[in-house]
Amino acid sequence: MTMAAMHFVSDTHSIWLGPDLAATGRAKFQKEMASNSGKIDVEVEVKTPVDKFWNSIRDSTNLFPKAFPDQYKSIEVVEGDGKSIGSVRLIKYAEGSPLATFSKEKIESVDEGNKTVVYSVIDGETMKYYKSFKGSLTVTPKGDGSLVKWCCEFEKASDDIPEPQLIKDFAVKNFKDLDAYLIRA
After folding, report:
1. Of 6, 79, 158, 161, which residue is least crowded by CB atoms under 10 Å?
2. How far apart are CA 107 and CA 121, in angstroms?
3. Positive or negative, the Cα torsion across 178, 180, 183, 185?
């Protein structure tokens, strides 16, 4: 390819630019692609000790529907053991949930030593709005309690789709509710 023309390609765009537009086009293309992708980071301090909180997250398949029936109807393991890489869980949300009726999550990686799990949403209403949605959760010690770090990386299905603020708010609520539940237990 010569310096006179440039071709930018992504999953959804293909643009040929002549020599006068190559530099300007690259910046515009990169901005357009970046506008459909995003990342949200959240940190929540909890009073529960790190090991207890992490173990509860790892047992969320069983614990969440029992502890939070107003949020979760059920969580079912459909592939694997529900905790290891490659496992797939079907999450059915409670009636009236503002989030969705269901989602399927696939565990991408687990680091027990660093108390980190990474998952991708692979099915459900979320996928109508986002081409990809990957979450990461890490629990670290903080004083007598823990610091829960949640991050999501996403690619919107279109420009008019908002950032997943509702999902972020739901995650934060879950961490706070889990902390309160574990303190009472």
Report:
1. 158
2. 9
3. negative
Name the residue with tokens 């503002």: 98
CA distances 161 to 38, 102, 122, 128, Å, are: 12, 19, 18, 10
| CA atoms of 116 and 162, how far apart (whole Å) | 27
Along the 185 residues of the chain, how does pLDDT read in single tens digits? 333 333 333 333 333 444 444 444 444 444 444 468 999 999 999 999 999 999 999 999 999 999 999 999 999 999 999 999 999 999 999 988 777 899 999 999 999 999 999 999 999 999 999 999 999 999 999 999 999 999 999 999 998 998 999 999 999 999 999 999 999 98
Give the closest residue to 163 by CA, choosing from 133, 120, 123, 119. 133
Closest CA to 156 of 132, 139, 135, 173: 132
